[in-house]
Amino acid sequence: MTQFGRTFRLVCDEPAVPVVEGLLRAQGFDFGPEPFYAFARRLIHEPFPLGESLAARFGLIYIQDRSSMLPPLALDPPAGADVLDMCSAPGSKTSLLSRLVGPRGFVFGSEPSADRLGTLRANLRRTGSVNTATAKAMAQDLPFADGAWGRIQLDPPCSGWGTVDKNPKVMEVWSGSKTAPLVSLQKTLLERAAAMLRPRGTVLYSTCTTNIEENEAQVAWALETLDLELTPLAEPEGFVFEPPHMPGMDGVLRVAEDSDGQGFFLAKFVKRGGESATGGEGAQKRDLPGNRLNLARMVGGDLPDLTRLPPGEVYDFGGKAFFLHQKALDLVPGGLRWQGFPLGKVAGKGDRAKFTPAPLARILLPEDPSRAVCDVLDADDTDILERLFTGQSVPFGQGRGSVGLYYRGLPLGWLARKGGRLLWSAK
């Protein structure tokens, strides 16, 4: 296996790219572009762990193996699309899908493990993926109606043989007959994905293993058993690919061992059948357990820029305000417990109710700090940001309420004010 540089992607819009790159370079990082995705970068110089950089801590970049970026890019959902991500944690692909579909698009992710679900939600919160919703559920048990989704991403549990460069013992842990339960689970998940897919919809199947039983053999099984057909994938620039290890697999992608990045396998299926604008019987509606909020009428609710939120509603669940994307409200069945994007905290009731934005709810900050009605700290260098992240407070003057934090005009989040000082309170 060849050695390759660490890769990451920028989590920002095109106009903010120079600012995010400038923040990285201000801390001594150097990097270059990747040819397969305009927002992907390859590290050239790493003066200290990239995960401890200000850009990473503020969620302006996401550290991700270059091969791991391929499945969402291969699924290629258009802006405004709805995507089901069946096996979401830790959120690398989910958050990339969120960027691809844009604010009016929607991504739903599921994860059965409570710990991994916590990681998924933390990563989506950090990357500002406000157009997502998540649930603690086994993907094969998701209660969506047949034909409910037009696009599904399925990156199921696998043996991980393609990660041997980082996990030297993976071949030993998942050898021989030990992979049999994984192969069986993958079939179950493929079958469920095919059922939830509407006619002419697409499912992107991927693994980070080189094991033929989990790759080409699964494709052959799906083509024989399910109402699916292969659609060829173009080879992204900057990778080396091997020929498929079984005949009749034209268009699948297998990242070669001498390519930069982890070993990965991708296959894109289309469900047979006629064109269908909608599928299934729709979501079974129910009353949500929380209380609907009108932030603009709450104390402190006049500070955020609510116009930046996509269509949807804000609900109070136990003192926490969550944004619920309109497409989540339309698509998610009533019998499934799920969570939207956290916006902040709610204290009190009625006319005395007070809203405090969460530190990472930068979606509520105006893109132009001069248009903010809240107090604003706009830093031109990294010194103030570094002090905030080490737990120090910075002087700001007297006042009340949260303060918007910007770096050279780029929204970063919200600071808490204690007397005449400001604190960064995100964990």
TrEMBL record:
Coiled coil: none annotated. Residues 1-272 form the SAM-dependent MTase RsmB/NOP-type domain. The keyword Flavoprotein does not apply. Its EC number is 2.1.1.-. InterPro entries: MeTrfase_RsmB-F_NOP2_cat (IPR049560), MeTrfase_RsmB-F_NOP2_dom (IPR001678), RCMT (IPR023267), SAM-dependent_MTases_sf (IPR029063). Keywords: Methyltransferase, RNA-binding, S-adenosyl-L-methionine, Transferase. GO terms for biological process: methylation. S-adenosyl-L-methionine binds at residues 87-93, 111, 155. It is an enzyme of class 2 (transferase). The active site is at 208 (nucleophile). It comes from the Bacteria. The keyword Oxidoreductase does not apply. GO terms for molecular function: methyltransferase activity. Gene3D superfamilies: Vaccinia Virus protein VP39. Belongs to the class I-like SAM-binding methyltransferase superfamily. RsmB/NOP family. This is RsmB/NOP family class I SAM-dependent RNA methyltransferase. It comes from Pseudodesulfovibrio methanolicus.
